[in-house]
Amino acid sequence: MKTSASNKKVRELIQMVRNGHLIPRPEFQRRLVWTNSDKAKLIDTVLKGYPFPEIYLANGELNIETGDGTQLLVDGQQRVTTLFEYFEGNPRFSLKGNTPYLHLEEDEKRRFLDYDVAVRDLGDVSSAQIIEVFKRINSTAYGLTDIEVNNALYNGALKTFADRYASNEFFETHRVFRAEDLKRMGDLKYVLQLIASMLGGYFNRDDALEELLSTYNDEFPMEQEVAKRLDQTLAFIDECGFDSKSRVWKRNDLFTLIVELDRAFIEGLALQPSVVVESLNAFFKSVDQGSLESGDIVATTYYKAAVQASNDRINRERRGQIIRDVLRGIEPLNQLLGV
C-alpha cells in the first residue's frame, strides 16, 4: 500500500468538515474518548506551534458528474474534531487555560489557521484495508477493542438494532454502564452479548458476536421478537423494585438475570415480582456476606463465577444454572455439581 505525505492547513481541515468534504466519523471510527484536558493540550500545542502526530485520510465517495468528492478521516478524529470545536467556539469545549479563539489577537488567529497538520493520504483503498490500517496505528491505551473492530466490519441490521436498544432508558436509569463503557462501545457489546445468549445460549467470551453480526448484517428477522422479549424482561425487573445497592445492578449479575428471566418466560413460568425479589435478595445476601469463607458451596461458586473469568462459558453457565434454580425455588446444589 502506497501512501503520500503532505500538509494541510488547519483552515483547510475546518472548511472540509464544514462543507461535508471531510467525514470525521465514518462507521469504522470509535466513539469519542478524549477528555477536555486532552483537547486543551492539543489546542495549547497548536497555539505554541509545536507539532502533533499525523492524521490519515482515504478517498470517500466521488460524484463523477459534478466532480464533488469526500475524504474519510481514518485516524485523527479527536484531533480534527477538537480543532473544529475550538474554532467554532463550541460551548461544551472546556478551554482549561487556553484563550478562546474569538479572543485571540489577529496574528494569533492567523497562526492557528495556518498551522500545518501532517497528513498521510491512503488514496483509494478498500474498507477492509482502512480498518486494518486503523487497527495497526492504534496500539496505545486507546487502541481498538474487539467490539470497535466489529462495529467497523458490520454496520447492518443487528448492529443497528443493538446500538439502538443500548440507549434504552432502563440502562441509564439504573446506571448499568460507566462513562468508559459508553466511550468504548461497551453498551453495544453488552446488548449484543444478551441477544446472542437469548438466541443461542451462553457462549465463551465474545466468540459468537462476530458470527452473529455477520449472519444478521443484511437483515435481522427476529428484531420485533427479541425487542418484545427484552422489553418484557426489563419491565419485570423494574416492577421488582430492587434496591439501588442490590447486587442485581452489577453488570454480570444483571446479565445472568436478564437471560434467565427470558428463559423462564419462554417456558411459561408465572413468576411473581415479590417472590423473585425475596428469593434473589436472600441468595445475594449469602453471596455478599463473605461467601468465600461461609462454607456455602453454591454462594461461593456463584461469587467466583461472577468475578473470575466471568465471561467464560463455564462461568456464565454456572451463574445461569444457579439463578435459574433460585427463580424456580429449586435447591441448586445437585444441578450445580453436574455442571
Describe what this molecule looks like in 3D.
- The chain is an alpha/beta fold and 339 residues long.
- It folds into 2 domains: 140 residues, no CATH class; 187 residues, no CATH class.
- It has 18 helices and 5 strands.
- It has a 5-stranded mixed beta sheet with strand order 1-5-3-4-2.
- A hairpin with a 6-residue loop joins β3 and β4.
- α7 crosses α10 and α10 packs parallel to α13.
Low-confidence stretches: none
Separate helix tally: 18
Radius of gyration: 25 Å
Indicate the percent of residues in helices: 55-70%
Distance between the termini: 51 Å
Per the principal axes of the C-alpha atoms, what is the gross shape? elongated
Give the strand order of the largest sheet, numbering strands 1, 2, ... along the chain.
Answer: 1-5-3-4-2
Q: How many β-strands, per DSSP? A: 5
Helices, strands, pairings?
Blueprint: E1 4-9, H1 10-18, E2 22-23, H2 36-47, E3 55-62, E4 69-75, H3 77-88, H4 106-113, E5 116-121, H5 127-137, H6 146-153, H7 157-165, H8 169-173, H9 179-183, H10 186-200, H11 207-215, H12 223-240, H13 251-266, H14 273-288, H15 291-294, H16 297-307, H17 313-328, H18 333-337
Parallel strand pairs: 2-4, 3-5
Antiparallel strand pairs: 1-5, 3-4
Helix pairs in contact: 1-3, 7-10, 10-13, 12-13, 12-14, 13-17, 14-16, 16-17
